[in-house]
Each structure stands twice: as structure tokens, then as C-alpha cells.
Amino acid sequence: MSVESDLRDLAVEIAREAGELARLRRAEGVHLAATKSSIADIVTDADREVEALIRARLREARPDDGFLGEESAPDDGSTGVTWVVDPIDGTVNYAYGIPSYAVSIAAVRGSVVPGEWEALAGVVYAPASGETFHAARGDGAFLGEVRLSVTTETPAGALLATGFGYDPSTHDGDLATVRRVMTMARDLRRAGSAALDLAFVAAGRLDGYFERGLKPWDLAAGALLVAEAGGQVSLIDRSSTRPLLIAGGIQVHDRLRGIVEDES
Ligand code: LIP
What we know:
Blueprint: H1 3-28, E1 32-35, E2 42-44, H2 45-61, E3 66-69, E4 81-89, H3 91-96, E5 102-109, E6 118-126, E7 131-136, E8 141-143, E9 146-147, E10 158-162, H4 171-181, E11 185-189, H5 194-202, E12 208-212, H6 216-228, E13 232-236, E14 244-248, H7 250-263
Parallel strand pairs: 3-4, 10-11, 10-12
Antiparallel strand pairs: 1-2, 4-5, 5-6, 6-7, 7-8, 8-9, 12-14, 13-14
Helix pairs in contact: 1-2, 5-6
The site of L-MYO-inositol-1-phosphate has 14 residues, from strand 4.
């Protein structure tokens, strides 16, 4: 067994336990704990409880690793490995009872900056469907035991997904990007979870995905899934406050990048 596959197996085990807790809390009724960057950017009691469970399980197994989670304080650790965690990605869906949400756990080495880190392992677990998307660096991406591949042909145009941030002032600009990108699309999906959007690109359920302003924990596991499924992931405008993530098979990725870089 490699280090990467050991990390993947640990992440899968913890994500499934955490996802079942999230599903249980959803069934019991969800309570708003606070808002963050805007009134639309919510955190529920379940987000915090699920992240605490994940953090405790990781500490039990690998006490000296670092931790970077959406809902709690970062920890640098001392091993060079950092866990990048979104306990419930798709929080607004979760709060409304829309079953499109996921637990996202990734292990990275070195930097904790997207695009600079070395992603080692990742899992995106969807409690509502029971689907576990996982990858270890160099070992491929899988849904359960089934190996995943991104799409390569889009004869009718690309089926794309995107998302919008919690700051309404950014919506006009994002919609202008959508308008330009639609020239290459057959249709557009907006499911509300970046982690699941990226997992679906890896699984060939989407041809491509783009979104501005994602946080490291939204994309860490999903980006590794896409890369290990033969796809390409880029972060454009990294120095801006809202870098643009682009993901897809090579051809879709490159066409997306060409369109959005023309507008810059
Ligand atoms: C969400 C992302 C989604 C994006 C939302 C939000 P959260 O993450 O998964 O793609 O459009 O604005 O960032 O807040 O549910 O963890």
C-alpha cells in the first residue's frame, strides 16, 4: 500500500461516518448557527458538528497532520500533510433540504494554497445518494470500485456546470461569463455543490465546470478526482479575490479557458 492510498482509505472511512451524521441531522431538522461573509453565507449546527467529528477522527489517526477546514481554526501540523475539509459542501442545499450536498476531505502536501499544493488523496461522499467518489495520487479516480474517466467528445456542445457566490454584487460579472461560455455549451447546470460538480466532471456526468471564488475546501478533493480521471483543472486570476476554477476533459478545459481569457 502507498502513502497516498492509505490516506485515501482513511479519508473514505471518515467521510462516510461524517456523511451519515450529516444525513441524520438533516432528518432531525437543521438549525442555522450563524452567517459569515454575507446573510446568504450560512453555517448550520450540523456543519460545525460534522467538521468536529472529522477533525477528531483525523487527530486520532494522524495527530501531527495539519488541518484546514471551513468551520474551524487552521492548524499547520508538523508532518507536511494537511487535511483540507468541507464538512458539508452545498450548505444552502442542505439547509433547504435539497439532497445535493457532500462531505469533501482531501490530503495535500506542502502549500495549502490551491494550485501550489500537491494533492495526495481525496474523497467526495454524497450522503443522499450513498455515492463515494475517491482518488489517490497516481492511482486513478473511482466511484466505489468503478474507475472514472472524464468525457472527451461533445458533439452537441458541452454540458457545463457553474455556481455563484454569496455576494450579490458579483452576480452580474459571473452572468456575463456564463453568457460567453454558452457559445460552447449544450446546456448548463447549477447544482449548488462545487465538490459534487467536480466529482461529476470526473465521472463523465458533466463535460466541464467553471466557478469563481471557490475556497480551498470546496475544490481540494474534487480537483484531484478530475485530474486522476484524465481531466485538467486550472485556477485563473489566482491573485484576484475571486480566482476562476476551470475543470474538464482537455478539449473542454482548453475551450473554456480560451473563452474566459478572451474576456479578461
Ligand atoms: C458552496 C459551493 C458552491 C458555490 C457556493 C458555495 P459551501 O460551498 O460548493 O459551488 O456556488 O457559493 O461556495 O458554502 O456550501 O461549502
